[in-house]
Amino acid sequence: MHSFNDSELTMVHSLPAKLTDPELDVLSPLLHRNGDVWTADFRGLILSTALQPIYSISHKRTVGYEALIRALDPDNASVLPIHLFELPTSDAEALLLDRLCRYLHIQNYSGLKDQLNWLFLNVSPRVVTSGSQADSFFGELLAQTKLPPHRVVIEIVEQPTDDAERLRDTVAYYRQLGCLTAIDDFGAGHSNFERIWNLSPDIVKLDRKLLTRATEDHKARQILNGIVSLLHQSGCLVLLEGVETSDQAMIAIDAGVDFVQGFYFCRPSTDLAKLCNAQPDFDQLLREYKACHQITRDPTRQLVDFFQRDFHKATEQLQTGAAMARACSTLLSHHTVSRCYLADDKGVQIEDTLISDTGTRNLDPRFKPLESTSKADWYRQQYLRQALAQPGNLHVTAPYLCVTGAYMCVTLSLCFTHESELRVLCCDILANPPQPSVNPV
Asked: 120-146: per-residue pLDDT in tens?
């Protein structure tokens, strides 16, 4: 890293002694225009704007750009943003640098031909909570540059704050201006859904560490999908950043995120005019996803086809009064089947669960309190309600965690009539079954 001497740490333009609330007239002399591009001075450094596109998967096009600051020292060497933001020695100077960056980004963005998409601007919680509660500067800046507030997304970095109430008030101010708000780096060390509930952001940006873990661990991939689903239910659009490979792009698509950002699609660039023409081939990407999705979806349909005959034979025998053990003997003999059980039209289990040899071998003594399911109520389970809604049709679930043994399974369910009453036969199949042993010849 370049080390700064005393002369380099002085401002190119002298600043007033009082920097408690730097306004446009203080910052304007620090900006310089060169053709269509603006730069700014801060402590001897030259600041410029880099933009990175943000894409909507469904729309297959750019819907916004994140503004990133780039800094060069007097030797024309790059200064990392993290080091740039360590330079301010007071809250007032940190506020000035934050506003200077936003001023610079908006000046550059306003000059683009793109008059539709969003500009994502980062705002530090330190600045938000130490600056004035109502950032009148930003309203004046939008008015001067004539950038419509609905085209601006204010990103709040996800981290602890000493003044949650002020942060909430500040976010409310940006929303009153007409801007959208976003929580950045959700999923990092300090993330929690309480921040989502308190601030009600329009967009949540997931931290790239979630994607990295999902790339390496299938269980983490399921957790990622669950987080996206919960955020959608909370009324937030979801953006996944840090997408760097085609595999990660597939994970993003499969997770159901709305927007993506990352080196795989486009790197940040200070060549702003050229950047607007960068469009990835989403048609090809989605064709590859559809092909993969078809492959991953087929096994559950194959389960229905494979067990259809045995299921109907079992229910026919139950209708004639046969005992569960006899009616389900063929089903229980298959090496993937864990258990069979019967429920009434209220979802209440009628008899004890029949455990197969495979299920018996997989019983974990740590979960013994969950084994007995006599009179258990399964009405909350989707497979039970689906079966009751469509008698005679064999239904299959996606893999889920079975509460009776804490193992992953899928459930087949079929509703039939017995003595004028509805019954549902259910069969749990291990999602990761042991392979059948093969006797040597």
From this structure: 999 876 666 554 545 678 888 999 889
Pick from 17-21, 113-117, 195-199, 326-330: least confident: 17-21
* CATH code, domain with 238: 3.20.20.450
Q: Look up the domain containing 81 and give its range.
A: 24-280
Say if 19 falls within a structural domain: no
Closest Cα to residue 312, out of 418, 429, 416?
Answer: 416
Pair (169, 262) in one structural domain: yes
Between vectors from CA 136 to CA 135 and to CA 139, what angle results, nearest 5°? Answer: 105
Distance CA 330, CA 313 (A): 9
Q: Rounded to whole angstroms, what are the CA distances from 397 to 44, 64, 304, 434?
A: 62, 37, 10, 20
Distance CA 375, CA 105 (A): 64
Tokens at residue 348, please? 């209440």
The kind and range of the H/E element at 274 are helix 272-275
Are residues 175 and 230 both part of a single domain?
yes
Q: Last residue of a domain, which of 280, 311, 330?
A: 280
Query: Do 105 and 146 fall within a single domain?
Result: yes
Residue 187's identity, in one-letter code, is G
Record the pTM. 0.77
CA atoms of 417 and 91, how far apart (whole Å): 73
Hey, what amino acid is at 424? V
SS3 state at 337: strand
What CA–CA distance (Å, rounded) separates 297 from 290? 10
The torsion defined by the Cα of 57, 58, 60 and 63, in degrees rounded to 10, comes to -80
Report residue 53 as tokens: 């596109």
